[in-house]
């Protein structure tokens, strides 16, 4: 994947999140404070605009992701801004200054995103957070690469795993963020953060497969 | 949704324009989104912030004797680090800046990033975390206790300490002491409606109340049946007393959540005073009114702080802000 593919990922993610903003907000109303879709749409649209206008350095794949991270931190607000912003920044740092990203390097970037988010939010797998979608996605991605899969195959495996991970958040009890105040009442609902992560991973798979809109 | 707004997406901006017009002695930076009174040379500055919809918190507490700057986020959404950094730089008077942070994941993460960025720029920043809400169990299974009514007490007394010339560590210590000595419990009678979504944040039946509600309408301990002000005050104070036995001199705030008339808050205050007297505590100072609200939610929160003579002096110190003013 080259720089333009990473720009396309951000654009596709922004479109998917905008399309699903109402659903994300409804999921958040059920177990949080009902603004996840609104906030993330604002953040991703700002990130997409920033890249399109090339207001910042977006010369390499790593620079694109670092710019996205900064935009998300600056524009999203709530907990999602620092969390997703950190994920993209760490992924961007892992890519360094290369101009072409292969399947192995993208795997390291996804892992760096996972580690950065886990460190910031101090959540564990099973706490009903976006890590419950991102964690399985990273594992599935690495497995696909290990079996000789290319970028398209590995990102598709990751997106599928993120969606399965999202479904698995339904019976979980939230232990982090604002949902944790609800305790038992969070059981039976999808986690909104896991839902948005599944969309972002799906956007990546679409771009890697050349299926962009 | 019936609300006095022009555009659901523009509520915060429109409100800040109005706040600026109503308070010409304060600086409202619409670009970077903060309210400040500018730097005071040699004084420790206090910066707070959080989601909007809790007015007068925090902007209404910017002024002499309290905050130096406040960063309003979107409704019920934490502000971003850029705002906090801009506000921190704008009010730094050379003696350091104290961030007063309510314990919500978003506020904590964004202020943490802002403090790191300010540190990178050579500023001295400390933080006080407010977590006074007894309705949430403080355990590894939750994000910890929420910051609610105690925030007003922390901002007032730490602000007074700063005005007196205390250094950053001492101002932070006052903030932490006030937080340690404060406990709150909220009760909701109706839900609130976020302008951007236009729908109630939660559902409550006609006769139901939410006991232990948070300032965003997050549920608390249990859902109960509507009863008398006396009984509801008793539930709140029992919860507070179980967590922190109440005796001696106390500061009490009976706070409206946005949709409850003042006459009802006085009915609650009477019940609170009766309960505390019956348990051997003495109310030496009080606030009754709307200080930390939750949009149009009906209900109230009760906050009690166990006072010391030093803290009482800080509470009595002059304050001149849009929402709290005396002694000057």
From TrEMBL, chain A:
Any GO BP: glycerol catabolic process
Organism domain of life: Bacteria
Ordered alphabetically, the record's keywords are: Kinase, Transferase
Record's Gene Ontology CC terms?
Answer: cytosol
Q: Which Gene3D superfamilies match?
A: 1.25.40.340
One GO MF term on file is: glycerone kinase activity
- Which Pfam families does UniProt cross-reference here? Dak2
Q: Which residues form the DhaL domain?
A: 4-206
What is the name attached to this protein's record? Dihydroxyacetone kinase, C-terminal domain
From TrEMBL, chain B:
Domain named DhaK is located at 7-326
Keyword Transferase on entry: yes
A Pfam family name for this chain?
Dak1
Q: Record's Gene Ontology CC terms? A: cytosol
Q: Does the keyword Hydrolase apply?
A: no
**Single GO BP term:** glycerol catabolic process
Q: Which SUPFAM superfamilies match?
A: DAK1/DegV-like (SSF82549)
Q: Which domain of life is it from?
A: Bacteria
One of the entry's Gene Ontology molecular-function terms is:
glycerone kinase activity
Q: What keywords does the record list, in alphabetical order?
A: Kinase, Transferase
Q: Which NCBIfam families match?
A: dhaK1
Q: What is this protein called?
A: Dihydroxyacetone kinase, N-terminal domain
């Amino acid at each position: 994947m080259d720089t333009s593919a990473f720009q396309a990922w951000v654009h596709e993610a922004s479109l998917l999140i905008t399309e699903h903003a109402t659903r994300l907000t409804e999921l958040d109303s059920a177990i949080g404070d009902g603004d996840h879709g609104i906030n993330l749409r604002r953040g991703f649209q700002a990130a997409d605009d920033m890249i399109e206008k090339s207001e910042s350095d977006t010369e390499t794949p790593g620079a694109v992701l670092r710019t996205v991270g900064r935009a998300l931190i600056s524009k999203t607000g709530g907990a999602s801004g620092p969390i997703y912003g950190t994920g993209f920044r760490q992924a961007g740092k892992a890519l360094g200054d290369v101009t072409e990203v292969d399947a192995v390097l993208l795997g390291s970037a996804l892992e760096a995103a996972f580690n950065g988010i886990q460190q910031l939010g101090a959540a564990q797998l099973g706490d009903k957070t976006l890590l419950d979608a991102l964690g399985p996605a990273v594992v599935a991605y690495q497995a696909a690469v290990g079996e000789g899969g290319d970028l398209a195959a590995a990102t598709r495996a990751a997106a599928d795993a993120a969606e399965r991970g999202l479904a698995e958040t339904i019976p979980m009890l939230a232990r982090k963020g604002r949902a944790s105040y609800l305790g038992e009442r969070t059981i039976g609902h999808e986690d909104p953060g896991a839902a948005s992560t599944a969309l972002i991973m799906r956007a990546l798979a679409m771009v890697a497969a050349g299926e962009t809109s | 949704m019936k609300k006095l707004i022009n555009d659901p997406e523009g509520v915060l901006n429109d409100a800040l324009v109005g706040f600026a017009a109503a308070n010409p002695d304060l600086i409202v930076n619409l670009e970077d989104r903060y309210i400040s009174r500018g730097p005071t040379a040699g004084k420790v500055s206090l910066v707070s912030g959080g989601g909007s919809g809790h007015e007068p918190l925090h902007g209404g507490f910017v002024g002499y004797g309290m905050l130096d700057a406040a960063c309003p986020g979107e409704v019920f959404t934490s502000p971003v680090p850029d705002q906090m950094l801009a506000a921190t730089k704008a009010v730094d008077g050379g003696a350091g800046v104290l961030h007063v942070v309510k314990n919500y994941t978003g506020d904590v993460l964004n202020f943490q990033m802002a403090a790191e960025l300010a540190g990178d720029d050579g500023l001295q920043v400390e933080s006080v975390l407010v977590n006074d809400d007894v309705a949430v169990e403080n355990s590894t299974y939750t994000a910890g206790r929420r910051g609610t009514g105690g925030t007003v007490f922390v901002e007032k007394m730490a602000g007074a300490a700063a005005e007196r010339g205390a250094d950053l560590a001492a101002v932070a210590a006052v903030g932490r002491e006030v937080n340690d000595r404060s406990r709150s419990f909220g009760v909701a009678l109706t839900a609130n409606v976020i302008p951007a979504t236009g729908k109630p944040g939660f559902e409550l039946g006609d006769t139901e109340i939410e006991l232990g509600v948070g300032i965003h309408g997050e549920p608390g301990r249990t859902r109960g049946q509507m009863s008398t002000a006396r009984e509801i005050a008793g539930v709140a104070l029992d919860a507070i007393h179980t967590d922190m036995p109440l005796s001696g001199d106390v500061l009490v705030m009976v706070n409206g959540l946005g949709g409850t008339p003042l006459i009802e808050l006085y009915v609650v205050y009477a019940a609170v005073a009766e309960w505390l007297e019956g348990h051997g505590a003495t109310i030496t100072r009080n606030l009754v009114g709307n200080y930390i609200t939750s949009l149009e939610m009906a209900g109230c929160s009760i906050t009690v702080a166990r006072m010391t003579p030093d803290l009482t002096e800080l509470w009595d110190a002059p304050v001149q802000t849009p929402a709290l003013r005396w002694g000057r």
